[in-house]
Structure formats: structure tokens, C-alpha cells
Amino acid sequence: MGHVNDPEVIERLMSTPGRWAIVGLSQNQWRSAYSVSEFVRDELGQQIIPINPRGEDVHGETGYRHLADVPPELQPIDVVDCFVNSQRVGEVVDEAIAVGAKAVWLQLGVIDEAAAERAKEAGLEVVMNSCPAQEAWRRAKSPGV
After folding, report:
1. Over the stretch 79-88, which tens digit does the pLDDT of each residue have?
2. Which end of the chain is more exposed for a tag (fewer CB within 10 A), N or C?
3. Distance CA 129, CA 133 (A)
4. Which helix (H) or strand (E) holds 19?
5. Cα–Cα distance between 137 and 59 in angstroms, integer?
6. Strands 125-127 vs 103-106: parallel, antiparallel or unpaired
């Protein structure tokens, strides 16, 4: 059986202030990473760290090329939010494990069961095939929540 997201993990990651490294976040406003990262920062109150191949700054936040380039004063990273395709996400998950991140969040359509299992075995929390903006909307629309 494949990975099943734990609603309590999702709720805790979204509601506990922390640092989210957004892998795949660039200045391209047409990509979902751009608007979702704004939501994560402005609505969920998380600090965001852009990670992209050019190390571009985004939303006024300093960008880095790799998770390993994030300076010690911004460590540990609480959540590595992955806006890369399923074929590339395993590398990102391995980097997240190597830098001591606490959790990985694989965005909608990003699925890698083996990478999720490696992350869990290394002690990271895992959310897969999900979007924090949609989870927040779902939570707001659910009666009794």
C-alpha cells in the first residue's frame, strides 16, 4: 500500500510557524509555486526560502540554488515543499534528508513512493500529492473544523 497523508501532520505543518524551503520557486508568476508560496508566507505565516536553479530571489526573499546552500542561521528547515516533477523529486527528498529537514511536502501530482519511504525511514514527516492552499481551503469549508 502506498503513502497515505495524515491529516494531523498536514494540520500541524500548516499551523506551526516555521521555515519552508520552496523547491522550484522562481520569479515565473505563471507557475503555481509563485502563488502558493505567497499563500504559505502571507496566509499561513511561514518563512519561505526560494530554491531554484538560478538562485533567484523571489517575493523579496533570498533565493538559493540547493537546499545545502541555505546558510546555517536559516537551519533547520521545517518543511521542504517540492514543486518539481515526480521524476526529479527523489533527488530533492534525498537533499532534504541530508540537510536535516523535518518534513517534505510533495505538491499535487508529485508522487514518488520510494522517496516518501526514504524520508519516513530518515524520520521526516511526509505529505504527498497535496497543496497547502487547497488543504487550507478544504479546512475552512469543513463544518466543525
Report:
1. 999 999 999 9
2. N
3. 13
4. strand 19-23
5. 22
6. parallel
DSSP tag of 68: G
DSSP lists the bridge partners of residue 58 as 61
Q: Residue 43 in contact with residue 64, Cβ under 8 Å?
A: no
> Which own/partner pairs from 130-135 qualify as long-range (CB within 8 Å, at least 24 positions apart)?
130/5, 130/10, 130/105, 130/106, 131/32, 131/36, 131/107, 132/10, 132/13, 132/14, 132/36, 132/39, 132/40, 132/44, 132/81, 132/105, 133/35, 133/36, 133/39, 133/40, 133/43, 134/108, 135/10, 135/14
pTM, rounded to two decimals: 0.94
Domain boundaries, the chain: 7-141
Helices 132-141 and 7-15 pack at an angle, to 10 degrees, of 100
3-class state of residue 21 by DSSP: strand
DSSP class of residue 7? H
For the cut 80, the answer to whether the pLDDT of residue 139 exceeds it is no
Percent of the chain with pLDDT over 70: 94
70 has a pLDDT exceeding 70: yes
**Whether 77 contacts 70, CB under 8 Å:** yes
Residue 99's pLDDT is: 98
